[in-house]
Amino acid sequence: MGDTTSLTQKDRAEQTTPESTRGVFFTPRVDIYETEEELTLYADVPGVGSGDVDLRYEAGELVLHVRVKPRHPDEDFVLQEYEEGDFYRAFSIHESIDASRIEAECKNGVLIVHLPKVEQARPKQINVRGQ
């Protein structure tokens, strides 16, 4: 008989991308900038409009899924180096973010997500008195 080994939940590889039914998923490049008031995420999503973006925040996770429409679906290319496909990325977000105030905008192929911090998480200046 062959050796059968069962995998524990810990040993299974975690799925970090969604199941693909439409071809390729790309991981968008991002920059995240932090100030005392908020985190700001900049994601490169070329060729995308605001209506193509599915951005969700749930249970401490920010999930970005962007549908990319084919640029030239019926063309016969002589050369094609630019691959087309959807974008997907997920981020674990600290509980200091106020989920009710998250805002996003898409400009010139860049998705900008504002993740404001809750008031309690913001640093406060303490005045020190002296004699």
Question: Can you give a write-up of this model?
Answer:
The chain is an all-beta fold. The protein has a domain at 24-70 and 83-120: Sandwich (Immunoglobulin-like), CATH 2.60.40.790. Helices cover 0% and strands 34% of the residues. The protein contains no helices and eight strands. It is elongated, with a radius of gyration of 21 Å.
Low-confidence stretches: 1-15
Distance, first to last CA: 85 Å
Share of residues in helices: under 10%
Number of helices: 0
Mean pLDDT: 81
**Per the principal axes of the C-alpha atoms, what is the gross shape?**
elongated
Structural class by SSE content: mainly beta
What is the CATH C level class of the domain at 24-70 and 83-120, in words?
A: Mainly Beta
Fold topology:
Blueprint: E1 25-26, E2 30-34, E3 38-44, E4 53-58, E5 61-66, E6 86-92, E7 103-107, E8 110-116
Parallel strand pairs: 1-6
Antiparallel strand pairs: 2-3, 3-8, 4-5, 5-6, 7-8
